[in-house]
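@channel sequence for tomorrow's demo:
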Amino acid sequence: MANGILTLRGKRAAPTNAIDDQFRRHERIWGAWERSIAVPERIREDEVRADFQNGILKVHLPKAPETRPRQIQVIAGSVEGGM
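structure tokens (generated this afternoon):
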């Protein structure tokens, strides 16, 4: 993950026991693939993790604590120069 972009890369191997003459159409695509996904700014990048089990990839993107706007007290004073 870099600059708010999460990039996933992988390779799907072709089945070794399938013969092309036995198929009219292949429903799966074989070979290397890559996907880039923009993620929100409020992600703790150092805690991002991924798990792959039973053919399912789960990407965990923990949220960073929400930053609240800060209030600044304005003190009224006199204006010099007579605007």
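heads up for whoever presents: Residues 42 and 68 are 12 Å apart (CA to CA).
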